[in-house]
Every structure is written in C-alpha cells, then in structure tokens.
Amino acid sequence: MSTRLARGGRLIDRTAPVEFTFNGKRFRGYQGDTLAAGLLANDQVLVGRSFKYHRPRGIVASGPEEPNALVNLGSGARLEPNQRTTTTELFDGLECTSQNHWPSLEFDVGVVNNYAARFMPAGFYYKTFIHPRPAWKHLFEPFIRRAAGLGKAPTTGDADRYEQAYAFCDVLVIGAGVAGLKAAQAAADKGHRVILLEQQPTLGGRAPVDQAQVDGQPVEAWLSAMESDLAARDNVTIRTRTCGFGVYDHGYVLADERVADHTPGDGRPKHRLWRIRAGRIVSATGAIERPLSFAGNDIPGVMLASAVRDYVVNYAVSPGDRTVIVTNNDSAYQTALTLKAAGLDVPAILDAREAADGALPQAARAAGIRVLTGKAIARVKGTRRVTGVAICAQAGEGAVQEEIACEAVAMSGGWSPVVHLWSHCGGKLLWDETLSAFIPDPARPPLNHDGSAMVECVGAAAGDLDLTGQPVAIPPVWVMPQGAPIQLRSKMWLDYQNDVKVSDVELASREGYVSVEHTKRYTTLGMATDQGKLSNINGLAVLAETLGQEIPQVGTTTFRPPYTPVTIGALAGEARGEIFQPLRKTPMHAAHEKAGAYFEPVGLWRRPYCFPRPGETHEQAVHREVLNTRQNLGLLDASTLGKIIVKGPDAGRFLDMLYTGVMSTLPVGKCRYGLMCNEQGFLIDDGVVARIDEETWLCHTTSGGADRIHAWMEDWLQCEWWDWQVYTANVTEQYAQVAVVGPNARKLLQVLGGMEVSKEALPFMQWADGTLAGFPVRVYRISFSGELSYEIAVPASHGAAFWAACNEAGKALGAMPYGTEALHIMRAEKGFIMIGDETDGTVIPQDLGLDWAISKKKADYLGKRGQERTFLASPDRWKLVGFETLDGSVIPDGAYIIAEGVNANGQRNTQGRVTSTYYSPTLKRGIAMGLLKHGPARMGEVVEFNTAAGGTVKARVRDTVFYDKDGEKQNV
Amino acid sequence: MSEPVSALNGASFQGFATIREIGPLGMITLRAKGLKSLDKAIKAVTGTKVPAQRRIEIKGEHACGWMSPDEYLLLLPYAEVGAALTKIAKALAGEHHLAVDVSDARAVFRIEGDRADQVLRKLMPVDFDRLEPGELRRSRAAQVAAAIWKQDQGFTLVCFRSVAAYVMGLLTHSAQPGSEL
Predict the structure, then answer these.
(1) Where does A162-288+417-462 sit in CATH, by number?
(2) CA distance B96 to B114
(3) Which among A29, A153, A936, B174 could disulfide-bond with B122, CB atoms 3.0 to 4.6 Å apart, if both were Cys?
(4) CA distance A133 to A154
C-alpha cells in the first residue's frame, strides 16, 4: 500500500486539506500536493493503461518526465486531456479520470492486446494493415485510433482565458535549482537585468530532497537566504510555475506560465505565454533519472528512485512499506536512507556494479541495509501492482537466485542531463563515458547573431551531477541482466507511454532500421507526449548495442521545442472570439449591422454582401438591389476602396511607369481609369486616378489592394527610383466613400444641396470639391455600374452621418443600400473586369481586351517588357469574351470550355474557362465572361462548358457588354 | 453639418488600468527630408522643434513625432488642421514635400494608471523598461500596426481607424482585473 506518512512533507500544508475525485472516487489530500502525490497518498497506485497493450500503469516519476500518469482533468468547458498528474497542483474540488481504457480502469478489454503482444511487435500496424490500400483510411485507421488514443478531446469551447506577454533581459536563467539560483545571482551582481524561470511553484530544485548542505549551510537556510537576496534586487525577476520550453534564434525564448491552473475559475488567465528576448540564456534545467530495463519494469509500484525520495520528503507519501532499490550508481542509496529515516523498510539494495564503496553505499550499510552487488532484477512480480522481485546475477541470463516480497521498487539507471534547451538551436552534445550520458559540448554551443554562445548550461544540465564537485561515475547498464533472453527482453519497457520494449528496438535493428531517426519512427520510441524523456537514451543505447556501434555514432534524435506540452490556448493567447483576427470596419459598419446586412470578408474588411429584408433570401435581396439601382437609386458603402496620394515634381513620370496608360497628361480635375502590372506583365490592380493639382494625383486601388499597392509604390521609390522626387501617402481610411448610383443619383445630390452637379458642371470622369448637406465632400463622377453615378468622399469622422443623410434624403427617390454582390452583377452586365475574377496572376491586360488602356507611345512601363515575351505576345492566348447560354441558365463558377480530344493524362482538353458568371436580374438570364482561345475572332460560335455534375452547358460567344452598350445611361 | 465622430465614440474600459478612446484628434502626415524650412514649418504648426530619430516633441495639445527618415506626424486640435495645412504649404512653398490630413484615418487611445505599461507589455514586442520619455515607438499591437508614447502618467496609442474595435478588444482583454503581470 502507498500511504500518507504521519509526519513530514516539506511542501504540504496539513492544516489545509483538499478533496478531489479520481474516476468518481473521493480522495483527500493537502494543499501543496501534486495530483500524483495525492493519488499515491490514497493508495491509487494504478492510474492508467498503456497505449498499445493496455497494461496497467502507475506513477513512475515526480516531474514533467512522467510517462504514465496522465489524466482527463476537469470536465465540460474545463476538460483537459493528457494532464500530467506529477506536475498538476492539487486543489479543492479537482476532478479527474483515467485514460486509455474501456470499459474501466480496473477491467479493460483492450488488455487482450497484452496477451497478443507477441503478435504485435514494432511495425505491426505497417505490416498488417497495408492491404487492401483503401481499407487503411476507411477501416483500419479509424478503428486503431479509437482503440488507442489517449485523453478525450473536449467537445465544448474552453471556458478559460489566456494571454501572452513580452519580456526582455540581459540574462535569462531557466531552472531555479542551486545552479540556476547561483547563476542568477552572479549575473545580477554584474548589474545585468535577469529573469529567472522555474517550472515548479517553489525554488530550489532537487537540493532540499537530495542535499543536507549547500556551501556549508543547511540547505533550507541557504535557500531562504538566496530567495530573499534575489527578491530584494530590482534587476531580478523571478517567475515560478513558468516553464521555459523553447529556445529559438537570436535569444528568443518561449515560456509557459501556469497562472491559474491551480485556481480554476478565479477569473485570472489560465496560462500566459511569455515571449522573451534574452541577451544570453543560462540553462539550469537539471538532469532526469533514467529507468533500468528489467522485465516487468512497468508494473505499478516500480518508480524512479529520485521520485520515491521526492514523494517521501516533499509530500510525506510512502510508496509502500517495503521498497527494493535497484541501481547502477550511488544516488539511489539516498533513497534507501530517506526511506529508512521515514521508518520504512528497505529489504535490499540491488547494485548492478561489482562493487559499491562510496560514501552513500557505506552509509546504507551502516544503517543496516542489505546491499547486494553484482545483482539484478530477473523480473518483477505482480500484475496490477508490485508484490515482489526475483533476483539474479547482472552478469548472467536471469536465473532466479532469490525472491523478495515488496510493494515498491525504486530504480536508478543513472542520470541524463536535460540538454533540450541547449539543443533546440543547434548546440552539440558529447558522450561522456564516465557518466554514460550526453552532455553539452561547450566548444559547439548554439550561436547568437554575433557568433557568441547563445546558451550556457550550468549544474546538472552541464553534467555536474554532484553539487560539491565530487566526480560521479555511472557505468552503463542498458539491459538487466546483461544476458537476458528474449522472453525477458520483451517485458522490458523502454517507452512506457508508447509501449516500446527492448525487443522492439532490437527487431527494428534486425529489419534494417540503422538510423536512430528511422528506428524512432518505426517503433514510435520517444514519440509520445513525454517525448522520450525517460526512454530515448536507453533506447538508443540498446540500438547501438544491437548494431555493434558506439552510442555517439548512433547519436540522438533531434530535440525540438516544446520541452513539455503547451496548451494550444496559450499559443493562441488573446486571439479568440471577437479578437481572433482584426476585423476592419468602415465608419458605416454599425449602420449596416443595424440594417441587417449580410457581410462577406474582403481582405480583413467586412463588407455588406446584401441587405436582406424580412422574408427575403440573399439571392432575392441581391436581385432587388440590382433592379432598384438600375431603376431608381442605389447607395453603396465604397469606403474600403484604396486611396493613395502621390505627389511631387516626378509624380507624373512615376505614375506613367506604374500604370500601363498615361497619367502625366491627365488634366487637373479629371479622372482616368488605369491598370497596373507587375514586372512580368501580369495585371495586379486597377482603378480610377484623379488629378488633384499640378503635382498631386489620387490613385484609387481595389479594396484588397490598397496596402499592397502602397507598399509596391514605396518599394519602387525607395529601392529603384530613389532619386525621383515623389512622396506617397495611403489615405484609404481618411475618407468614407459613398457611391450614389442610378437614374435618381443627381436628384439626391440636388436634394442634399450645396454644389453644382449638373451634366455640364460635373461631366463624366471629372471630380469636384464642395459641400453636400453641409458635409465637406469630394465628388467623383465615375461609374462601375453603367448608371449615372457619383462617388462621394467625406472625412471618415462624418461617414456615418453622411450615409444616414443619403439614406434619409433618398427615401423619396427610392434609395436602397446595395451590397457587393449587386455591385458585381452590375459591373458584369457592363463587361467591367474585376481584379481577382478576370485576373488570377497569369492574365495580362491584352488578354482582357484592354489594349486601349495601354499606351503605345510610352517608352516603358512596369510590365511592358514582360508582355513582349513570346508566350504572352502569342496570338493563341485565351482572351476575354462574353457568353450567353442557349437555355438562359447560369454557367457554373469555375467551369472550363472543353475542346476536342484528351491530353497526355487522359483528361479532356480545354480551350477556355469562365471568369465571371451571374444571373442578371436586369436581363432575366444567365450572363458570363470568360477566357477563350482566339475568343474575339469567334463571335457567334457555340461552345460547351463542363459542369461538376457531368454534362455540359452550351453557350454562344458574344461581346462582353450585356447592358447599355453605348453607355448612354451613365452619361446623362 | 454634423460633429466629427471618433471611431468608437469615446468608448472606455476600467480594468487594472483605464482605457479610453479619445479624439477625434488632428493629425497631419508630413513627408519631407532635408528641407531648409522644415523646422520653420513644424514650428509654425506645433510650436516644437523637429524631433530626432524615434522621438516625439510635445507641447501642450501639439506634438510632432518622427515616423521615418522622411516622415513626421503632426498632432494638433482637430479644428486646426485646415489652417495648419495652409501654414505648411506656405512655409514649404516651392520645396518638395507632401502634407495630408490623416485625422480621420486614425483611432487614438489613452492607457492610464500605475500599471498601464502592463496592458501594453501583453500586446507589443516593446521593451517598456527601456522606453524613454519622449520616445515614439512604432510597433504593433497583436496583429495590427500601432504607435505609442508615454505622456502624462500613461500612454497614448495610435492605430488605424478601421481596426479601432479590435484594438479596444485587445486592450480590454489585457487590462482584465486579476491579470496583472
């Protein structure tokens, strides 16, 4: 039985009991407990089932390296799967359930896999489920996933909030054990700005459990003096419960602060992701104890020796009355002494070494503990918990010499320095023969921008396992006993979470997986949520032995961030719900919402797609909006349209280079439509340019193109034509813009009053400044619909009021707002192109019949040379024409025009495609534009478009202008 | 004619710091470089000298910030913008420059209180410990561009008008009581 001891427990507060449940069972613990400590204190030794064979599993470790004891924590909107009980702080009301079993933890039918384990070795899935191919996707994989799987994914949104924060420092120390604390103090002494991160709630690391003294002082006294010293310094920031989990280029470190994991629902952010820029990083991340590979080393009750010490000293939890120690080094003797001091029994210490005469082994013998050298565990007895061990000679093949009854086994296979943070950015490792461990190679650190070492490891992370500086020797013991036959090897677990055994790695090696990276993927060694913190070194040592290579030759797998799992909530930070992404809103946005607009995304803007009335479908609304605009008056919020001021003595010359047409000759007060191409000649944007004064032009861009085109202008001005005297300013958001469109457009402006807008005073393609209803406005007489149309710019601060004024005054004139879909239909009826519909990055203006907008006189413009290349100048290009279906139907979006024969892939040949296709409420039929090979020469010809449903739609080729070909409507 | 209305009509939030949308504020983008009369033009509008790199010169309700080697941001009362543009045109007549009214293209927030910096530390990759008085920092707030400077026991933040609601959402989220750093 594991139980709570009557005395002790340095981290628990016995005056603050808490209640929690595990699989519905009510347990008691104390504030300061981890969930794992609380479970053990209540004799809950069995905590889960393994991933593949569903074997019973117990708590092995006491920190983030724990492979087994993962639970579903919380419920409903606070359910979190795969939570590590060894790092979860206990709180009152905590609920958790065990994972990976069905129907219950105690009785799991999946355990049948365990008995069939012989038939499910490494690579079993790959070998068995490969044929027939479709069965993998539809049958095998879904089934295996259901049977395997760890925790349950939550089905509701997360009730908690998360945030991120930025921090900067000269020296970032990660890990607040003795080495980290000293490093922080030393850096602070030099006047550096220091941040010290510690993943646990308390400082000190392993020292309070493992050490009697530090620097000649009792450890607790040393620690409290150090804590108050650091706390008193202005240049030191200490963050506990904060795990530095990833090191990136240029001293960038991410850390996860568990702000309110232990106080759920108190309104604080659950986690906070720290984004730290550090001048230098000190990794004081300690070392992790390694398991030993003996048969049955996964049976609940087998624990790391250091973890056993932690539970006794920190939480006053006994793993059982009788604990057998098995080790290859001196550190585990400390566990024996700790247990003994707590009044518990240690029937034997089994030491794989032939001799053990260090200070700790001597102390153990002096305490009357039976020490057996040259011995190993042949196998652990018990199924759901340890009942005893069978002892054999380490040098032999496992012949049992003696059996000892016990409730727990404390094992130590040596220590692996935590070199993860060192390695994330390319720090290299050395194999240390004395420690049998990889340690950081100080000669090959990860580098900073200036070639200096970005990370320095100190303390156990650097391989200095003894605080006093005494040399530590740990002989390699990778399999126990060394000559164990296959029956034993197939019960020696390397990776507890993914169920990888010594025999699996050996099989992989026999099957030709000689690279450690391949072996990892074939066996899944180290691929579980613990990322092989316990298993990697043992696994690659077994691989090396099988391959007959040295361990450093085999090497390690790559260490990648994060060091421990980080909840997605922390990575998302504040970016959820309303602030998931910036939504750009025009000054009239609130009015549109009030009017019941249905919005669509246009870049990051939200624009009204249509304004449906009660009982109307979106399609009906769009048709009403089109007809009303054509017959009466439509109002469009065109504020998103890009507006860029270009000014300077060289502005005309600059715009002549940017646009395919000539802008320098545009008279002041007039407007001209222009096209912009990239250097390759492809059309990238279009819009109307207005000449404001002698030196100033205003360039309208597409809504999505404003920022891109402004950057494009600055790119050319700053990098290529830096000596041209031109300044630009993006004033897109300075103005709200309202398009007043339809036969009654002029009447509305006259009702608003304030300026002359007659045909004579303000002809088509001109602009004028003035006032309307008292608003300061600039009126552009331009049309994207074919109707009489004015686009009116007002300062954004007046936008909402002006929009309201137009709607109010327009009531008597039949005014209705219209959305982007009506805009699209009306422009298509007029044969106007839309960037992004008629263009896709492979289309040049000539393809669209826009030769009239390309100056023949200019020596150069961006794209001119590109357009002269043979492929773009070819007469065989697909060119823009209009289409009218023979049956009046609407051609499906994206349809291709089929041609005779098939291509090399057996696909039907094509000769064109549709680019814009709509039902025209004006013409009461489907209309379309599209690109067709030799299109303009094929007027009247009937072509066939394919459809997704099969079959084709016949359409007659025609010109692109479906409505008011002579432009009489817009020119009244 | 209506009164000018700021993007959020003066919205505010009281968390562990106070968030207020202010404005409308007069703003002029002035682009010019190496002009003889530049200091005269700026002095005429804001009463300040030409700011050095990454600095803002503040004088009462007027200020001039350095935005780039050839761009300045002039801050002034909204009603003064028209007259200011005339003054600049006069002072820089014949010299290559661009001055445009951007008052309505921006939203302006004040973040105030003892812990005002903590609200911004959560959103901006800026080393606030090293932010000097009179320093204008162009950076970002989460996913959008933003500029800030310290002023009168708090910070002034400027962003684009269209994302004002997003920025208000960010500031509100970051200033939630209990989430102090």
Answers:
(1) 3.50.50.60
(2) 44
(3) B174
(4) 31
Which tokens belong to A588? 């009239």
What is the C-alpha separation between A887 and A895, in angstroms, rounded?
A: 16
3-state secondary structure A43-85: CCCEEEECCCCCCEEECCCCCCCCCCCEEEECCHHHCEEEEEC
Q: Where are the domains of chain B?
A: 12-174
Using DSSP, state whether A87 is helix, strand or coil: coil
Measured at the CA of A598, the angle between CA A592 and CA A604, to 5 degrees, comes to 80
CA atoms of A675 and A724, how far apart (whole Å): 22
Cα dist from A613 to A610, A622, A804, A857, whole Å: 10, 10, 18, 52
Q: Is the model's pLDDT at A127 over the cut of 80?
A: no
pLDDT band for A1, please (50, 70, 90 cuts): confident
Option in B4, B122, B177 nearest A163 (CB): B122
State how far Cα A151 lies from the chain centre.
20
User: Has residue A196 got a pLDDT over 90?
Assistant: yes
DSSP-assigned states of every residue in A316-363: -EES-SBEEEEESSTHHHHHHHHHHHTT-B---EEESSS---SHHHHH
A797–B24 C-beta distance less than 8 A: yes
This model's pTM is above 0.80:
yes
- State the fold for domain B12-174: Gyrase A; domain 2 (3.30.1360)
Q: Terminus-to-terminus CA distance in chain A, angstroms?
A: 96
User: Is pLDDT at B54 greater than 70 in this prediction?
Assistant: yes
What was the pLDDT predicted at A148? 56
Fold of A3-112: Ubiquitin-like (UB roll) (3.10.20)
Half-sphere exposure of A421 (CA within 13 A, CB side): 33
Mean pLDDT of A638-664: 98
Mean pLDDT for all residues in chain B:
96
Shortest CA gap B59–chain A (Å): 25
Residue A767, min C-alpha distance to chain B (Å): 19
Which of B6, B92, B123, B173 to mutate: most A Cβ within 10 Å? B173
Read off the pLDDT band of A751 (50, 70, 90).
Answer: very high
A484-555 homologous superfamily: BFD-like [2Fe-2S]-binding domain (1.10.10.1100)
A574 with B144: Cβ contact below 8 A: no
A162-288+417-462 and A291-413 share one fold? yes
Contacts of A268 in chain B (CB under 8 A): 178-179
Does residue A486 come out as left (phi exceeding 0), alpha (psi in the -120 to 50 range) or beta?
alpha
**Which residues face A257 on adjacent strands?**
A242, A272
Distance set, CA A291 to CA A67, A89, A429, A430, A437 (Å): 11, 25, 21, 21, 13
Alpha-carbon distances, residue A81 vs A153, A154, A567 (angstroms): 6, 8, 10
Is it the case that residue A141 has pLDDT exceeding 80? Answer: no
Chain B residues in contact with A734 by the CB 8 A cut-off are: 100-105
Name the residue ranges covered by the structural domains of chain A.
3-112, 162-288+417-462, 291-413, 484-555, 875-972
How far off is chain B from A32, nearest CA to CA, in Å? 22
- Range A178-198 average pLDDT: 98
Start-to-end C-alpha separation, chain B: 46
Nearest-Cα distance to chain A for B150, in Å, is 18
Average pLDDT over residues A608-621: 98
Query: Is A875-972 a domain of CATH 3.30.930.10?
Result: no
Other beta carbons less than 10 A from residue A279's beta carbon: 16
d(CA A739, CA A749): 11
User: A412 near A332, Cβ under 8 Å?
Assistant: yes
| Superfamily of A291-413 according to CATH | FAD/NAD(P)-binding domain (3.50.50.60)
Give the pLDDT confidence score for residue A110 in this predicted structure.
Answer: 65
